[in-house]
TrEMBL record:
This is Heme exporter protein B. The chain crosses the membrane at residues 32-50, 56-77, 109-134, 140-163, 170-192, 204-226. The lineage of its organism: Bacteria, Pseudomonadati, Pseudomonadota, Gammaproteobacteria, Cellvibrionales. It holds the Pfam family CcmB. The keyword Ribosomal protein does not apply. It is a multi-pass membrane protein. Its main location: membrane. It comes from Cellvibrio fibrivorans. Belongs to the CcmB/CycW/HelB family. Keywords: Cell inner membrane, Cell membrane, Cytochrome c-type biogenesis, Membrane, Transmembrane, Transmembrane helix, Transport.
């Protein structure tokens, strides 16, 4: 028997939007690889520009990896709602009677899966290249998983505000960068503290709190920003 309850309808809409955006992302392979290529090239060039000494690289590794992960995530944000805006489907979604909260969440989840998650999984390899001590690998993975998810959610608000602008990449960066700073500070601090033998529970708890707050508030803010952008 088919379930026509509101919860089932919301779940079905979420799954349909998730599948659609995942297929669209898979068709644009260049957009999928750009953040990873940037992350890889930028981090590997650091030893050439700073110092090849292992002690120096080990000291700088947490900050380097985190800053480059932030920039790699930022690189792919402009296209979060762009294709829907260009083909007119975004306006159709906004006038739909269905709740768009889960539609936005599906888009953000796809963005994290194709940008934030690969960056997170690649980070330990680059940490090895930067002579990051072994104590820092697990905290690096945990902090980046929480941090990149928060950055995708926060970035959705900026992407929604600039979706109607043809060249809104710079404005998008200016909008979201100040909001990324706390995530960057606590994420890099977690790795650095772990390397020094300290407890990282506080940093991970703060990153988790950022993520929980972003899950609740960011999609709502993004919906308001989308309505402002499309009506402008």
């Amino acid at each position: 028997m088919r379930d026509n309850s509101p919860a089932a309808s919301l779940l079905g809409g979420f799954i349909a939007s998730f599948r659609r955006d995942l297929l669209i992302a898979a068709r644009h392979k260049a957009e999928l690889t750009n953040p990873l290529v940037f992350f890889l090239i930028a981090v590997t060039l650091i030893p050439l520009g700073v110092s090849p000494e292992k002690t120096v690289l080990a000291l700088l590794a947490p900050g380097i990896v985190w800053v480059m992960a932030l920039l790699a995530t930022l690189l792919s944000l402009d296209g979060l709602f762009r294709s829907d805006y260009d083909d007119g489907s975004l306006e159709q979604m906004l006038i739909s009677p269905q709740s768009l909260y889960f539609t936005v969440m599906a888009k953000v989840l796809v963005h994290w899966l194709v940008s934030g998650l690969p960056v997170t999984l690649l980070a330990p390899v680059l940490g090895l290249m930067l002579s990051l001590p072994i104590e820092g690998y697990l905290p690096l993975l945990a902090s980046l998983a929480l941090g990149t998810a928060s950055m995708s959610l926060i970035g959705a608000v900026g992407a929604a505000l600039t979706v109607s602008l043809r060249k809104g990449g710079l404005l998008l960066s200016l909008i979201v960068m100040p909001l990324y700073i706390p995530v960057l500070i606590f994420g890099a601090s977690a790795v650095q503290t772990a390397v020094q033998g300290g407890a990282i529970g506080m940093q991970l708890a703060v990153l988790g709190a950022f993520l929980a707050l972003a899950i609740v508030l960011a999609p709502i803010a993004a919906l308001g920003a989308l309505r402002i952008s499309t009506n402008g």
